[in-house]
Amino acid sequence: MGNILDRRQILLAGIAGTALTLPGCSSIPGFSMTDAIRRLLSLSSQQAFATLLQPGGFYDSNVARIALPDRLGGSAGSGVLGAVLGSSIFRKRLQKELNRAAEKGAERAAPLVADAVRNVSIADAASIVRGGPEAATAFLRGQMGGKLIDAMLPGIGGALKLASNDVVGQAIKSVSGFDVNALASDINTKADNAIWKSIGAEESAIRADPQKTNDPLLISVFGLGSRI
Length: 228
Description:
mainly alpha
């Protein structure tokens, strides 16, 4: 357990370091719109991963919680799993296990997002500043494409295979033609969506109240008195 926490603390420290070294934060007169977008994305992703990489980070989040695949009882709590294993306690245990696997994927995703924020080319930053509450997040996601999905799958698949109990195995056996690889793919896609939703929610909150960041650049660009 200690090693897991140490690894997550290192990841979060790296993301925070990226935020602190972005240009344009110490000298407001010389800032650019590109600096503002990078700063916004850096802080949004830092805060999102700070939550998601905590134990229970996905499951405890109203934004990021991973739902059971439809083939395992899905959103209605029915289907094959409901008929065969039919226990709300079992489904809850299974859902927690799947959300723990998503955490392992997020560990791999975090440094990729931080690196992308640092290096992404922003052609029209002013339009992103003037855009909707999650405009910067949507832009970064479009630039990264499926990189997070590709990176997270080994971590999620490995976590499912190494699950310490037989909850995942029982669930898979209850569905004909469904295996751990199919389950990992489902969780991987949902984890990708959950990560971007979490970053977008953080961006929206910063835009709504930039003063809470205590960041002069963000306050200047996104504050009520700003003029773009």
